[in-house]
Amino acid sequence: MFDADRPIQKNEQDRLGRTVFAKSLARCILDHKDTESLVIGLNGGWGSGKTSVINLTLEELHFASGNMFDVERPIILNFSPWSYSGQDQLVYSFFRRLSSEMRHAEYFENSKKIIHLLELYVSFFTHKPVPKILRPKSSWLKHLLKSQHAIEEASGWESGRDLTMIKAELNELLKQQKHKIIIFIDNIPRLVDSEINQIFQIVKSMGDYANTVYVLALDKENIIGAMNRLHGTGGAEYLEKLIQLPFQIPDISKQDLEKILLDRLNKLFVVVPESSWDSEAWSDMYYSTIKYFFENCRDITRYVNTLSFGFSWVKELVNPVDFFAITAIEVFEPKVYCGVRDNKDLFTDLAESVYDFDAEKLAEDKLRCDEILGRTENLPRDLLLQLLMRLFPRLRRVYEPKATFYHSEALARKNKRICTLDIFDLYFRLSIPSGSISDAEMNAILELTSDEEGFALALARLNKDERIPPFLDLLDSLTSYKIATQNVPNVISALMDNADLFPEGDAGVLSCNTAMRIHRIFQQLMQRFPSHDERFGIFSDAIKKASNSIYIIVHEIREQNKEHMESAETYVPIEHRQFSPEQLRKLQALAVSKILSWVEMRRLSEHPQFLSLLQAWKAWGNERECREYIETLTKEDRGLLAFLCAALKKPIEQTMTKLEPSLTWNSYLKNIDDFIPSNALVPHAKQMFEAPSFDKLREKEQVALLIFLDLVKPDTVKIIS
User: Fold this and answer.
1) Do residues 169 and 163 make contact, with C-beta atoms less than 8 angstroms apart?
2) Contact call for residues 91 and 198 (beta carbons, < 8 A)
3) DSSP assignment, residue 430?
């Protein structure tokens, strides 16, 4: 399993695009022909991936050096001072490791002399004699006479030789050979102040040796603080003089961090009972609040490890979405978590028939909850409150007494929600009583919402720059409340007209695609308007104006229809729905009129969601007209291919990715039969398959014909393989 907190070792593990930089750094080090020493600094905050970059650079260095002649092959040392304690041990261990790397490099010229001089040099600092195994072999006569030379071989400070002379002789030998000595020192920020100082003394004392390159993993602010604490001031100047070539490791983007988190959660998700997962509830909590807990990969590891351990104990007893959410509070806001755990009566079930929500009770509850919210240390109070209100609907009576909302105690109990009185304690069984848009740019875009055309142009620019996903991500959060109420119709119209042009996005159990994201934004914005008529007027106007999009209209109406389905758990009483049943029917009729206009313009069959649009037309409009359209369309080559590509979309995708058929594909013939009998398409499909022009079709179109003919199994001149 990929561990977000464990540094990667190889470039195939790289999820953050650091390999290109690491390879370039390695090549630059090897191409550095100047014999002068070089000190490189890799600066990055906690969890930014400095060790991973070092590992990737080492991988490239070892690969490149394997193809070099022995005379040029470098000596490479990767030293982690965090493994050693104490200043004397730190210095001693560093030089032992360096000496060991030199001894094991059989291709290293003048290695014995260089190692001996280095050991003499080191003995001045460590006050330890040169290890016997590293002393030059002396004749029996010298041992007998115990000459001064023998003393010199054992220690530097008793030899009478000048330290400067030893260093100069050593430097001259290093300059004469072509081998670079490349030294990586990692985990420096984890050391105590005195050990950090010792590391930099090592680098400073050896930093001007010829053909020597240091690569230091730093947290600049941490290092400057340590040096200032030791020496009073001058930490920044000291670091600036020492580091000749600084590089900044960029922080992990929110989008990359989210991908890593969802990858980790997907691996955990295999133990989640499928029937108990509510993707919409997860989207509400994750995109509005939970995602803001994660600043780096270590945050992900803390969360996923805690979640993995705790969930396995209670997975059959709790609502998984609620458990995922309360675990985030447990990991990142432990004081708030304890406050929730210890105040069961404040957070459990909202039921007006049980609680008396008079002014005195509301004031008391608000005072208690304010104190718990005040314990937050990482998340803004308003974001945390939004998460708690989603977990515990009773809090809406405390903080939003005039807002209307729907909550069913029976449904909450059925779904094992944390807000249920008799299930609440199960969530605390293991409890002992982390391409972006800046805030300035986002605010500037939101100011354009007073001008529908200007806001639409801003959306087009963001889409062209491939920044629509992060923009919608921000708009899907509390940022949407920065939009003035009078500008809401402009926002809805602009999104309704442009959404089909946006990237579709990935829809999974832990994430939502673009259409669902926009639906969530619409839901938030429409809450500003209390009446059905106001909301209907805004939506119907937006649909009428839309010329660039059609699928987002159909998708939104389908989502609204879920509130009207009495047989489903999504059913909501009429007074709490966005639209009345009659208004919903009118919106469906408007959608059909838009579909017909796309038919007239001959654009419908070109839409990526062609099948979904046909299904909406058939369900909400004139079914006979829809069937006649397909019958006419499929008489043309391009029309038949478009229809088959739409109806067999999933089998085509599976074929082009997995390269193997599935026994379930027969079910997709229903997508065809819903509009036209499959057999009616066979002669035309056979003709196109057997024609010489088949080879000129696009791969997707060829696969569509092959799958269709394989499913209906007609006699063909050519073999279907």
Assistant:
1) no
2) yes
3) T
Between β-strands 38-43 and 212-218, what pairing exists: parallel, antiparallel or unpaired?
Answer: parallel
What beta strand segments (E) does 279-335 contain? none
Residues with Cβ within 8 Å of 406's Cβ and at least 6 positions away in sequence, in order, are 572, 573, 576
Q: Which of 347, 353, 359, 362 is nearest to 392 (CA)?
A: 347
Q: Which residues contact 193 (CB under 8 A, 6 or more apart)?
A: 226, 229, 230
Amino acid (1-letter code) at residue 324: F
- Cβ-proximal residues to 308 (8 Å cutoff; 6+ apart), any chain: 268
Residue with tokens 């260089």: 114
pLDDT of 351 reads 41
Token pair 């979309």 in the structure block, residue: 649
Q: How far apart are CA 346 and CA 557, in angstroms?
A: 37
Query: Residue written as tokens 């070089």?
Result: 38
Tokens of 246: 């600084």
Amino acid at 348: T
Tokens describing residue 143: 């041992």
Spatial distance between the Cα atoms of 538 and 490, rounded to a whole number of angstroms: 9
Q: What does the alpha-carbon distance between residue 463 and residue 476 come to, in Å, rounded to a whole number? A: 16
- pLDDT lower than 70: segments of the chain: 1-6, 83-89, 125-162, 206-207, 349-358, 431-436, 438, 440, 478-481, 566-570, 658-661, 716-721
Q: Which residues face 182 on adjacent strands?
A: 76, 213
- What pLDDT was estimated at residue 425? 87
Contacts (Cβ under 8 Å, ≥6 apart) of 447: none
User: CA 326 to CA 323: how far, in whole Å?
Assistant: 5
Amino acid code (one letter) for 296: N
The C-alpha atoms of residue 347 and residue 335 are separated, in whole angstroms, by 16
- Report CA-CA distances (Å) from 443 to 88, 447, 449, 481, 484: 55, 6, 10, 12, 12
d(CA 676, CA 641): 14
Q: Is 431 exposed, middle or buried (0-12, 13-18, 19+ CB in 10 A)?
A: middle
The C-alpha atoms of residue 92 and residue 516 are separated, in whole angstroms, by 60
Among residues 581, 583, 563, 582, which one has the least CA distance to residue 573? Answer: 563
pLDDT at position 493 is 96
Q: Label residue 160 left, alpha or beta by phi (over 0 means left) and psi (-120 to 50 means alpha).
A: left
By 3-state DSSP, what share of the chain in percent is helix, strand and coil, each rounded to 5?
A: 65, 5, 30
CA-based angle 574:578:579, to the nearest 5? 70
| 505 close to 469: Cβ distance less than 8 angstroms | yes
What contacts 565, CB < 8 A, 6 or more positions away? 571
DSSP calls for 593-635: HHHHHHHHTT-GGGSTTHHHHHHHHHHHS-HHHHHHHHHHHTT
Cβ atoms of 210 and 178 closer than 8 Å: no
Q: Is the pTM of this model over 0.70?
A: no
Residue 82 burial class via C-beta count within 10 angstroms: exposed 0-12, middle 13-18, buried 19 and up: middle
Burial 625-636 (b: 16+ CB within 10 A, else e): ebeebbeebbee
Residues 6 or more apart in contact with residue 588 via CB below 8 angstroms: 557, 616, 620
Q: Positive or negative CA dihedral for 356, 359, 361, 362?
A: positive
Identify the bridge partners of residue 78 per DSSP, sorted by sequence position.
Answer: 184
Q: Map residue 648 onto helix, strand or coil.
A: coil
Q: Give 379-418 as a 3 state SS string.
A: CCHHHHHHHHHHHCCHHHHHHCCCCCCCCCHHHHHHCCCC
- Identify the DSSP state of 249: P
d(CA 131, CA 54): 31
Residue 664 is given by DSSP the state G
Q: Give the neighbor-by-neighbor strand order of the sheet with 181-185.
A: 75-79, 181-185, 212-218, 38-43, 245-248
